[in-house]
Amino acid sequence: MQRYLVMTIRTPQFQTSVIDAHYAFLDRLRQQGKLELAGPFSDKSGGAYLIKAANLDEARAVAFSDPVHTTNSSDVTVYEWNAT
User: Fold this and answer.
1) Helix H or strand E encompassing 5
2) Environment class of residue 10 by beta-carbon count within 10 Å: exposed (0-12), middle (13-18) or buried (19+)?
3) In angstroms, rounded to a whole number, what is the distance separating the alpha carbons of residues 66 and 61?
4) What pTM value is reported for the model?
5) What domains are there in the chain, each with its CATH number?
């Protein structure tokens, strides 16, 4: 399994109502053993989370199913991260 850094940056269309669904999404990933770290940026511009996936396509599929992405509340970008 590789690690992937998911960056979520709020868009002008950000909906505060999506926050609970986003946290539930992250909780499900944690229960599945896919989520290592997660948290918002202190300036409230978005956040980031670190997931484990077999490959970049799988990581993107996971990240792009995040409610902040599916509601167009945030731009979501996935990076393969060779962290040690």
Assistant:
1) strand 2-10
2) middle
3) 9
4) 0.94
5) 2-81 (3.30.70.1060)
Q: Which residues contact 32 (CB under 8 A, 6 or more apart)?
A: none
If phi over 0 gives left and psi between -120 and 50 gives alpha, with beta otherwise, what is residue 33?
A: left
Q: Both tokens of residue 30? A: 């944690």
State which amino acid sits at residue 72: N
Tokens for 43? 């300036």
pLDDT at 84: 76
Tens digit of each residue's pLDDT (9 = 90 or more) over 21-68: 999 999 999 999 999 999 999 999 999 999 999 999 999 999 999 999
